[in-house]
């Protein structure tokens, strides 16, 4: 069906990771126009079709978390170039209706709440001041998302690209989906729909409900289990591993500061600082020892409060690798593909042999091979020295953490195929790694945009679910809409700029000072305490009726809710919690590092959407910081007036 340019909608998502920000521009045909002009079931029973041209993506470094001490530079040095890029793509007549979302991840999670507040509020202020793109409210559009959010967005994006969300029939309980795995620098995630109906029922409190809307106005509903492990990404795992080597060495006082690392190729060397001491780490290239040494980092010894558990004491539904398929991105792909040429369908035997050979190679030979163009021309010091550890860590996570079967060792003999790597496709392969599907980059950002675009479609169901994510009961979070519109009505367009957060306290302060001044001058007096309370009540009622002031009051309260000091932005479970410090060990080839250092290879018609579902609806907290300060001011005023009245009576006497 031919879609006129005027019938397209646009959306912008900025993935602000630890290494930099990446802006993505998307577009999709207006679902109302599509619904009126086609009767094709495959289109009507599917979510909106999101597309992205090859050059609709731009990245900039470093990450916004580095601006915590220079927030005023976040616009001229960081976002200005990104917004200018987006303005060259989105037609001018569409910019005032095009939403923009800035979603920060690992780097921002590691900052203090105070620094997070400064960066989020400054980002929103600058974007609203310097662009025409739509921000319904800062809390929904500019936020830090946790690993759970990334996991669900990734699952939505993956299943969209794999066409699992097309022709959705709500009556088909066995509608298939594909599991999502992601490993970054700080954390690793998994998201999947449990295969067994009894598992969904038994684990209901652990499972989130994801809803999308088809072009025909009917709702899709998915039961998704999602979990994230902070501290189990490639960077953090490497840091914990080296710290483990150092701590174990202290048992022997004769070791000193020179240590051997079985996960480094032979004769490779690195330096590592730990507790103020610099250690010289030398590689001995012992793959079997490396695998055994890494295993304790999974922390499978952490008590499992309720079986079954995966690792680090995390309870989860059973993973059915006999039936289900999983796709891994980021480190799962980079390590396997760029160094070992084993990306794609996973063959344990082949991958294991190549990792073993590499780990036990001499560093001089690896450098020689790198000079010949092998290993995707990766920088030896930044990437190749860590390749043995990363590959070994991936193997441990997959097989010991998630219990993925080793194809040549654990599958029934009749299902095993001998011979070339390509013949592995003759059997069910439960895991594959990739960075793109049919030329479309696979990223969690796709899920964000798809949810947003889906939320704009009016419901055709009397009791249709709102679009977004109903977080698991155990998470304690409330439903948050995907953004945009709910059943055709504006979701939220309140203007809550930071300047309003500043204006309200100033205005109230000036008004109070005016009254105190007049009390002190004797121009206003309340001889009876009861009358003073009546006047005080009247005064605040008058403030609430000042044109526009009530909206400002509401915006301030919502802004305070966004910036609560106790805001929970790291929901990762397990013994490590959110106490891990920033890795900053090496420039590992993780998603955040690589996606921000290499060019994009989007094929025409690329899809990459994203939606905001952790946008907490702002409440009016009873113990809001604003109310607290306001009450204090009233009490101070009352005490001041009372004291002045007493002083006057004394003077008269």
TrEMBL record:
Region Disordered: start-end pairs: 618-653
A GO biological-process term: CTP metabolic process
Keyword terms, alphabetized: ATP-binding, Hydrolase, Membrane, Nucleotide-binding, Transmembrane, Transmembrane helix
GO cellular component, one term: membrane
Segments traversing the membrane: 502-520
Binding residue positions for ATP: 185-189
Pfam families associated with the record: GDA1_CD39 (PF01150)
GO molecular-function terms, A-Z: ATP binding; GDP phosphatase activity; ribonucleoside triphosphate phosphatase activity; UDP phosphatase activity
PROSITE patterns: GDA1_CD39_NTPASE
CDD domains found in the cross-reference section: ASKHA_NBD_YND1-like (cd24039)
Protein name per its UniProtKB record: Golgi apyrase
Native organism: Candida tenuis (strain ATCC 10573 / BCRC 21748 / CBS 615 / JCM 9827 / NBRC 10315 / NRRL Y-1498 / VKM Y-70)
Lineage, highest ranks first: Eukaryota, Fungi, Dikarya, Ascomycota, Saccharomycotina
């Amino acid at each position: 069906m031919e879609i006129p340019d005027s019938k397209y909608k646009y959306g912008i998502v900025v993935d602000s990771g630890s290494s930099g920000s990446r802006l993505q521009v998307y577009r999709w045909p207006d679902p109302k126009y599509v619904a009126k002009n086609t009767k094709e079931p495959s289109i009507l029973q599917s979510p909106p079709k999101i597309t992205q041209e090859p050059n609709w993506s731009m990245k900039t470094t470093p990450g916004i978390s580095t601006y915590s001490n220079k927030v005023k530079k976040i616009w001229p040095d960081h976002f200005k170039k990104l917004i200018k890029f987006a303005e060259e793509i989105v037609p001018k007549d569409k910019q005032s209706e095009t939403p923009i979302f800035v979603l920060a991840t690992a780097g921002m999670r590691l900052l203090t709440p105070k620094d997070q507040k400064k960066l989020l509020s400054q980002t929103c202020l600058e974007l609203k001041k310097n662009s025409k793109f739509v921000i319904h409210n800062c809390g929904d559009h500019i936020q830090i998302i946790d690993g759970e959010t990334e996991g669900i967005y990734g699952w939505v994006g993956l299943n969209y690209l794999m066409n699992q969300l097309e022709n959705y029939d709500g009556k088909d309980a066995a509608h298939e989906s594909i599991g999502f795995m992601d490993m970054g620098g700080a954390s690793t995630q998994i998201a999947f729909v449990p295969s067994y109906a009894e598992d969904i029922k038994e684990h209901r409190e652990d499972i989130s409900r994801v809803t999308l809307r088809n072009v025909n106005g009917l709702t899709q509903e998915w039961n998704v289990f999602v979990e994230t492990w902070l501290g189990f990404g490639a960077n953090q795992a490497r840091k914990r591993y080296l710290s483990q080597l150092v701590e174990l060495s202290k048992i022997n006082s004769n070791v000193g500061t020179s240590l051997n690392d079985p996960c480094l190729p032979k004769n490779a060397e690195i330096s590592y600082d730990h507790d103020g001491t610099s250690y010289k780490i030398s590689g001995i290239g012992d793959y079997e020892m490396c695998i055994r040494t890494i295993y304790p980092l999974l922390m499978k010894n952490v008590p499992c409060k309720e079986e079954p558990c995966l690792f680090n004491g995390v309870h989860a539904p059973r993973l059915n690798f006999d039936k289900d398929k999983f796709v891994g991105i980021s480190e799962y792909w980079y390590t396997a593909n760029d160094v070992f040429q084993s990306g794609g369908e996973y063959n344990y035997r082949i991958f294991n042999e190549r990792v073993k050979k590499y780990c036990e190679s001499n560093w001089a030979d690896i450098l020689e091979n790198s000079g010949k163009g092998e290993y995707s021309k990766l920088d030896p010091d930044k990437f190749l020295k860590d390749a043995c550890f990363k590959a070994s860590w991936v193997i441990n996570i997959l097989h010991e953490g998630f219990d993925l079967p080793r194809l040549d060792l654990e599958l029934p003999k009749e299902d095993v195929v001998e011979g070339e790597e390509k013949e592995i496709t003759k059997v069910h392969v439960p895991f594959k790694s990739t960075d793109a599907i049919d030329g479309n980059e696979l990223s969690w950002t796709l899920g964000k945009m798809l949810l947003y675009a889906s939320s704009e479609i009016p419901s055709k169901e009397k009791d249709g679910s709102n679009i977004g994510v109903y977080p698991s009961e155990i998470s304690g979070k409330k439903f948050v809409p995907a953004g945009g519109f709910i059943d055709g009505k504006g979701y939220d367009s309140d203007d809550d700029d930071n300047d309003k957060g500043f204006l309200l306290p100033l205005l109230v302060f000036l008004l109070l000072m005016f009254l105190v001044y007049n009390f002190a001058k004797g121009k206003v007096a309340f001889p009876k305490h009861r009358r003073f309370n009546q006047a005080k009540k009247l005064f605040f009622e008058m403030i609430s009726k000042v044109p526009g002031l009530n909206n400002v009051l509401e915006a301030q309260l919502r802004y305070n809710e966004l910036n609560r000091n106790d805001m929970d932005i790291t929901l990762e479970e397990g013994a490590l919690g959110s106490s891990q410090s920033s890795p900053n060990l090496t420039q590992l080839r993780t998603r955040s590092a690589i996606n921000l250092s290499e060019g994009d290879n989007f094929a025409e018609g690329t899809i990459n959407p994203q939606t905001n579902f952790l946008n907490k609806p702002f409440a009016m907290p009873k113990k809001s910081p604003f109310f607290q300060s306001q009450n204090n001011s009233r009490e101070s005023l009352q005490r001041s007036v009372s004291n002045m009245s007493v002083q006057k009576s004394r003077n008269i006497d």
